[in-house]
Amino acid sequence: MRKNGNMEKNKTSIEDLKSMKQKIDQAQNIAVFCHVRPDGDAMGSMTGFGWALENAGKSVQFVCPDELPPDGWLRPEELGRTVAYVREPEPYDLSILLDISDIERAGSYFSGVGSPKPDICIDHHISNDGIAELNWIDPDAPATASLVAGLLPRLGMAIDSDIASMLLSGIVMDTIGFSTSNTNPQVLEISAELMKSGADLYTITQKVLKAHSYEVSKYWARGLSKLNRDGQLVWTWFTEEDREQSGYFYKDDAHLIDHLISTDTALAAIIFIPTAPETVKVSWRAKPGLYVAAVARSFGGGGHLAAAGAEVKGILPDVMDAVLNETKREILRLHPNLTSKGRITSKSTSDWNEIV
Ligand SMILES: [Mn+2]
């Protein structure tokens, strides 16, 4: 285990590997879990790991504590398979959490008073402090699916073409087609192995990244029409009305944020979505060098260096003000040559514009 800088977050060791194998060998009924508002990596990691366990003779419960994502993941049906995803598990011998960075993200089953402690957590979020009895966390891995792909052979489990496809779909989603700054030689090597095992990179990329519905385009148009820029920051928001008018009914940004952060002048992009009365879901993306997970944590959220999120209590204008200010402060902290005159609010942007 390395212990310096970010590396102290790297919580993997040969002892952990042995004890993970022992726990899995001893269990018959295993529940695999993904996080609330699951994404392609969460679904791909959970499903791929679950199938590997089934191939090893285990009985597996696939627990998704939320609605299945509308897109951005490889549906088992695409591989001619079906999975009975359940919201809550029946009794199990062993719980394995995939891509879950904190206990709230695991859903109410684990986060309530007197909830059981998860047995194993496999994750790549830098903000994960270790929420299970045994934690296998590597923030250098661009996707939990790439961690799983590396782990399965070491646990004595084979990767067939369905499992390879699921895992590659998670990698493609989290690296946005191998284009994120954390895409490294290791993930390319692992992905090459998954292709050799039968995963079809082109088809997977089309399914999880490229294809989107007409309704998504209409939804993006509404978000883009409200786009704001303030120095190196771009942001927008979605409301219930946007969902009704576009016919897109999921309380997410339909991946618009990955487009916003491609704005040439932007260091950070933020999308705000009120998800419940006085609750706003905030998503950040950042260019390399800006640590948005730290900002997200200051609002009770978490994530990666360049991609983070939080559920913030409050009404939209207040949350926007607070989050925009904190994010701008972080930009200024890292780029002190930029100077800001006093407090900047989302309504008075002139000071900020001057420093661009
Ligand atoms: Mn992930």
Give me a quick take on this structure.
The protein has 2 domains: 5-210, Alpha-Beta Complex (inorganic pyrophosphatase (n-terminal core)), CATH 3.90.1640; 214-354, Diaminopimelate Epimerase, Chain A, domain 1 (Roll). It is built from 13 helices and 11 strands.
Total domains: 2
**Could you name the ranges where pLDDT drops below 50 across 5 or more consecutive residues?**
1-8, 339-356
Can you identify the CATH superfamily of the largest domain?
inorganic pyrophosphatase (n-terminal core)
* Global structural class: alpha/beta
In DSSP terms (H or I, runs of 4 or more residues), the helix count works out at 13
Query: What about the largest sheet?
Result: 6 strands, mixed
Quick one: overall form?
Answer: globular
Range of strand content: 15-25%
What does this structure look like?
- The chain has 356 residues and is α/β, with parallel strands linked by helices.
- It folds into two domains: 5-210, inorganic pyrophosphatase (n-terminal core), CATH 3.90.1640.10; 214-354, Roll (Diaminopimelate Epimerase, Chain A, domain 1).
- Helices cover 38% and strands 16% of the residues.
- It has 13 helices and eleven strands.
- It has helices at 14-26, 40-55, 108-111, 144-154, 161-174, 185-196, 201-210, 214-225, 240-246, 256-260, 292-298, 316-334, 350-354, and strands at 29-33, 59-63, 94-98, 120-123, 134-137, 228-230, 233-237, 268-276, 279-286, 302-303, 307-313.
- It has a six-stranded mixed beta sheet. The chain has a five-stranded parallel beta sheet with strand order 2-1-3-4-5.
- Strand 10 and strand 11 (307-313) form a beta hairpin.
- Helix 4 runs antiparallel to helix 5, helix 5 (161-174) crosses helix 7 (201-210) and helix 8 crosses helix 9.
- The protein is globular, with a radius of gyration of 20 Å.
- Mean pLDDT is 90; it is low at 1-8 and 339-356.
- Manganese (II) ion binds at residues 41, 99, 124, 143-144, 174.
